[in-house]
Amino acid sequence: MGQGFVIPLWADLSAVALGGLQGALFASGFRGQRRLDLLGVAIIGLVFGMGGGIIRDLLLGREPATLRSDWYLVTATASALLGMLIARPLHRVAGLIVGLDAVVIGLFGAFGTSKAILLGLPVVPAVFVGVCAAVGGGVLRDVLMGLPVAVMHVGSLYAVAAGAGSALLVVLHLLGVPVAAAGVAAVATTAVIRLLAVRFDLSLPEQRMLHRRRVAAETGLIPVVRGD
Amino acid sequence: MGQGFVIPLWADLSAVALGGLQGALFASGFRGQRRLDLLGVAIIGLVFGMGGGIIRDLLLGREPATLRSDWYLVTATASALLGMLIARPLHRVAGLIVGLDAVVIGLFGAFGTSKAILLGLPVVPAVFVGVCAAVGGGVLRDVLMGLPVAVMHVGSLYAVAAGAGSALLVVLHLLGVPVAAAGVAAVATTAVIRLLAVRFDLSLPEQRMLHRRRVAAETGLIPVVRGD
Amino acid sequence: MGQGFVIPLWADLSAVALGGLQGALFASGFRGQRRLDLLGVAIIGLVFGMGGGIIRDLLLGREPATLRSDWYLVTATASALLGMLIARPLHRVAGLIVGLDAVVIGLFGAFGTSKAILLGLPVVPAVFVGVCAAVGGGVLRDVLMGLPVAVMHVGSLYAVAAGAGSALLVVLHLLGVPVAAAGVAAVATTAVIRLLAVRFDLSLPEQRMLHRRRVAAETGLIPVVRGD
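^ Those are the sequences you sent over. The predicted structure of the assembly is below.
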């Protein structure tokens, strides 16, 4: 407990790996005013894979755990590189990026809330930290890429999904459910809400890209998106 | 002192409440390329109400005090919701948003500087922390909303006002004036400078919105602002 | 070592001074939709001079060292003011801004990596912290000024140069080379790579401005740059 609490390394690294993969896939699909070069794609993978955890630890007043071991950066970099390699074929499997995204925000949210609870934060801030951990990597990504911040404009869905998962985790914890089980339920809740939201809107995975293309055409405001 | 120093909870919560209210009022009046949904407005209220305090504590190397109690988030959320409810009638009382804004930056600046002094920071960094606490929430808000950062383009006024209040607080503190009295003087100074600046420019509260509309028309650069 | 480690004050202040100078020179040359006022230029000088060090210390979980002494802010402010005064004549000495920039990122990168090593971070995170310290001030500057984030779009060069310098420092440290000597080699490596990259691209210092002007003309996306 307290200082000694550590999320199991394999779980944390899995989240980082999926985040790095998703970030690189997302960035590979981006066509802006200037295409991102390969390093840019790798940076976005890193940011998306590690950003949530770093924001979580800053809010908790701890040294970022992801910088106390070589493994996080190695994992995030490797998965970002993998994402770049497989981006072209995988873009056809449209649902994959959305699905990965949903699972990643679920994982970051659950880890953020768990760590906050185990460090003794009250329940409301614990949920807040979970939401920030879940959406923080995406906010950093959008700011670095000069995109509208998704969580504000598209993605109330993100915040709602992350908030619901984090709140469920807190409730289950108060009811005495072990953190691991509560975490699994929280990840599932967040991911399912996010995926249902995408389905319910009848929006394709490229929804945001398409939307951007339309907005770009109408307003000239957003980096022009040429046909993917 | 030191670790044990806490700004009185009621004062801190009042600042957070006014910040949440102002943030929600500001965001409600925003018409961008996509109108913010209700959750977006609430998020901006939260960010504006709590951002300054979190930035202050990060710069001071402390755990964010606003996450050690349920009250801050509850207060900020409630006041943001209140702001959304009363946004429509209140937008006619034009001066209110500007006035609230002036008081809020005054409060955050004074609390930031006080906490820095009481934690033993030298006087120049104490003023710096106060200014960052005062304008930080607004910077986060603008970045999340994709607006030009007000403190850079419009709001030298903000930085000057916050700097003057924070510097006065430090001087009064060095002269032996109790923190509470010095804080009141600092808040008043910041708020008055900011309000005088708005008056002196003969600019209405909507100044920024109007300005934006003009810039948008001329350059297509800023989210098109349709008639409020 | 550990908590007691401090980069020599004169070296740290030199980096801050050069950063403040470069930031102010950069911002003075900026013509956006609204010209920055003098305070805006000073703020950018401060942000560029101090941003890297603050980000470094946040990632390391330490109180920002730059806020524990009056000297950093005084130095950064003074050098930013100096930069504003000499901006007009100096803009003719085109290479100077680019050269300063290269040295500044070298210094911030080397200090970031050194501090990380001496605080006991593993080698990969130590390089990461160095890169973040090197490019962090520039990212903050670009976000505040509403510019595309240079490190993503133009400046893979920045990240590569900073990464190479930081990695060299780590390798030399592992080989037993004293930190001071390793640091000098790292700064030189970063600066030379960055300068060679600029040369090799046959790009003038104004490259980014010119590029922006073209992009602005083509897309209306970036603040219109009128003749410098």
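Residues 75 and 116 of chain A are 24 Å apart (CA to CA). DSSP finds ten helices and no strands in chain A.

Shout if you want it in another format.
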